[in-house]
Fold these 3 entries.
Entry 1:
Amino acid sequence: MGSAFSFLISSTEPIDPSLGDLPESCVASVLVYMDPPEICKLSMLNRAFRGASSADFVWESKLPLNYSSIIQRVQNFPNNLCKRDIYARLCRPNSFDGGTKRVWLDKSTGGVCLSVSSSGLAITGIDDRRYWSRIETDESRFKSVAYLQQIWWFEVDGEVDFPFPVGSYSIFFRLQVGRASRKFGRRICNSEHVHGWDKKPVRFQLSTSDGQQATTQCYLNEPGMWKYHRVGDFVVTGSVTPMKVKYSMTQIDCTHTKGGLCVDSVVICPVEFAERLKQRF
């Protein structure tokens, strides 16, 4: 009888509340202040956090305010996705303009990044195989680069008309002096055609549809390495009207030829990502 009595007493003792007892609406109100990676980790705690992590208002707060305008530019973007799945889809590279450009969101911050392939740039003499050739490579997200053998007049131009969210952005040209290849599993760089880049600097320029401009110049003197060369920065103050941005790199001193350069792409990203690019390749 004593054991039965003790069981009766213990069964009526209050049970301590746990995180699983929190209403999903309360959990979601907390998750909205966290970064996307943190939300994904917390979704694995229990059923309440898993349900709250799927709330539309949580993920809409992480998406750019004009994300619907970005989706309209993307090729084959699925319809009827929840906000969480829209965010996840936009964090993958999404092609537009015939596959010559890609846009994606940074997974941690939701910042918009954009890349333009060498095929989406206007390159002087690109159709003349005496000067330029297309090279397939797994070192480019577009799987090919434009390779300059030799030319007198070097000019690469491009432009993008895109609904950038409000913020500050930087533009970079991704270049490599020399031609990389693999031999016996090792990466090597062929410098056969490299010349002329130490005589005059390359000039980088940008201009925007609202009158912003920037100019920089530098010598291309680090063969065998992919480098992000900063063109300049621009600021977007409103996302109602798309911003048109023009960018170029030139070395048009015709007193000498230049060659041995790989042109991969142009990258546009939030200014705070500049340090990340410097750490790559």
Entry 2:
Amino acid sequence: MKEQKSKNDWYQWMNLLISEPYYVYHFIIFFSYLIVRTSAIQIFSSDFSYLLLRREIQAVLALLMLVTVKLVKEETWEGFLSDVLFFSKGFLIVVSMLIDIQLALCYIVVFFVVFTLTQQPPYSELGHATRLTPLQLEVILTEGSASRFWLVEFRALNSSNCIRTSRFVSDLSITYSTKNLSFGIVDLGLFPNAAEKYGISMGASIGQLPAYILFDNGVEVKRFPEVDFEVRTFQKRLSKKFLCRHFELDRHLIEYVHVK
């Protein structure tokens, strides 16, 4: 079953890489360097060509080292690809400066245009989580539901942090969903007015997105990130393991199994 899921994830990512404009445009830009380099190498001296080749090899080796580190440390493919593309763009610009400063400036402009016009796609599967509107969430909290606990993620998919963590709730819901604990997702990008109701700041400088709130019979009992009275968030590295510890998901699951 796990092997089948891995194959499905692989096929899904391959489909995204050849169909999503965000990835297609980046591939075209990186591929264009080979065309530019092949065309320009004819006018370079042999000494400069050798120097350029050395710098390219160094850049590739450094990139491979960073990619290996990120592959081990990152929990999600969204975060991994975001980091790889970021480092790749940096190395491409640096190497392009050796050829021509104007070429490097052109790449900077093109990357800025791609960043403005396209967006990295978030993880689209829901698992056992439910996509909610603010009205639906309010009905659940005020009128009750079959589940005693609700762990709700508040996200906005114009935030890179939310895209990187977009599979957390889906994965956690598959493991920890019970009749006693349900998972929900509210997109504040679509419903920004709901942010104030739940005490969430949409400001990029404060960094409160994604926000997670655990409700017990409609009453908030715990949240992350926690905010003090001066509206400063406590910065921690967000991961599925951290969310499990913070909201004690293992305890909720064990209690449900024992009661059952």
Entry 3:
Amino acid sequence: MANVALSEAEKTFILHGVEEDFRCDGRSRRDYRPMELECEIVNNASGSARLRLANTDILVGVKCEIDTPTSLHPDQGKIEFFVDCSANATPEFEGRGGEELALELADTLTNAYESPSAFDLKSLCILPGQHCWKLYVDILILECGGNLFDAVSLASKAAIFNTRIPKVTAAVMDAGEAELLISDDPYNCTRIQIDNIPILVTVCKIGDCCVVDPSAEEEQCSTASLVVGVSKRNNKCYVSHIHTVGGGSLHKDTMYKCLHLGVTAGETLNDALEKALRLEESRVGNKRKETVGFLK
């Protein structure tokens, strides 16, 4: 995470504010900062989204390619995350300064999506044992203002929702191999179900209290944070992944509080995200545009 220089007096001020349930920006311990979400902003990607969470700015692009399934999972597709920390986000990312953080973010997302109940890779299979779709989720951190795990997971879920996978038909050749015919019609496509896709909720321990959506300044006042992966099963949220951040430790009672707060915040956040995505989809729509001139 980006380091912010704070004096001891500033840290004490933040700590007392959290204890009084009145943080520096006026939020309570359970409140998130304002968000802005845009979809379909990268023209040469299969899906894209940009999320602004206060001062944190994340851009995600998804590309689809045909690949060969693995021998262990011949009936499943693939998904791969790549995170790049822009040097403009913070001076600490200059050179190779952001590689460790980028790898941690990518590994956390990979582990959160690993469960079949969280993300159905079978929907990406074209022909078992022969062909499947592979999703490349490229994440660019444009600005770092705290709470990167939550912002990255929300932007990734929105980009996957925006992804359009071309329709594919298979024709069997004489040698028994299948030849794939990919539709070049941008409106003849399939969408990925995102209902069970997990989101990450960072619960930060400051003093004896736990807060969600920590700012960069609040992260400097914490010795340990818990990143909770929240997914859905039968319309009920549950914990699908846990990742600890920081060198401190958590008592078991504090761990239970963090998990409960993470699931509660994740359920509210997930409902708000899906509602916003459905509203944007209904506004923009996926209707075939009327062709004019020589395009007829």
